Amino acid sequence: MNDIDAWVWWLVGAAALGIPLVVTAMPEFGMFAVGAVAGAIVAGLGFGAVAQVLVFIVVSVALIAVVRPIAARHSAQRPQLATGVDALRGKQAVVLERVDGSGGRIKLAGEIWSARALDSDRTYEVGQAVDVVEIEGATAIVI
């Protein structure tokens, strides 16, 4: 065991840290693995054990301090692309059959939808443009 260079041990450590990264999907293990690779580089350049451990700690902590908050921000963001009924909210439609509080028909995104007015006292006549505010089941709520 004494014949193996320190940089090899650092690479073995990096590989060992990569295993829980894959199994648990915790990115912190990947950051520690990168720190171990940095330690291997320092060992390969001929620095002592203290320098190797310090580089490992500094690189690992720096990655956790910088990358982790960025990753958390990205995971908290909603997707920019709205799909399904979410994509229909805010779209304009054309009234095909009179729409009031009890129902009617509109043409929305090239399809014919049942619709009803958000305000039950309002009515929209054929050919009038309306805005979709919500989708409830297969019914568009319009204003």
Short structural description:
With 143 residues, this protein is an alpha+beta fold. It has three helices and five strands. This is NfeD family protein.
Description:
It is found in: Membrane. Its main location: membrane. Residues 85-142 form the NfeD-like C-terminal domain. The chain has 2 domains: 6-76, no CATH class; 84-142, Nucleic acid-binding proteins (OB fold (Dihydrolipoamide Acetyltransferase, E2P), Beta Barrel), CATH 2.40.50.140. It contains 3 helices and 5 strands. It has helices spanning 6-24, 27-44, 49-76; strands at residues 92-97, 105-108, 111-117, 129-136, 139-142. Strands 1-2-3-5-4 form a 5-stranded mixed β-barrel. Strand 2 and strand 3 (111-117) form a beta hairpin. The radius of gyration is 30 Å and the shape is rod-shaped. The chain starts with 5 loop residues before the first helix and ends with a strand.
Protein traits:
alpha+beta; 3 helices; OB fold (Dihydrolipoamide Acetyltransferase, E2P); 5 strands; 143 residues; 2 domains; single chain
Question: What's the structural blueprint in terms of helices and strands?
Answer:
Layout lengths: L5 H19 L2 H18 L4 H28 L15 E6 L7 E4 L2 E7 L11 E8 L2 E4 L1
Uncertain runs with pLDDT below 50, 5 residues or more? none
Helix run count: 3
Number of domains: 2
Secondary-structure-derived class: alpha+beta
Subcellular location: Membrane
Membrane topology: Multi-pass membrane protein
Protein name: NfeD family protein
Keywords: Membrane, Transmembrane, Transmembrane helix
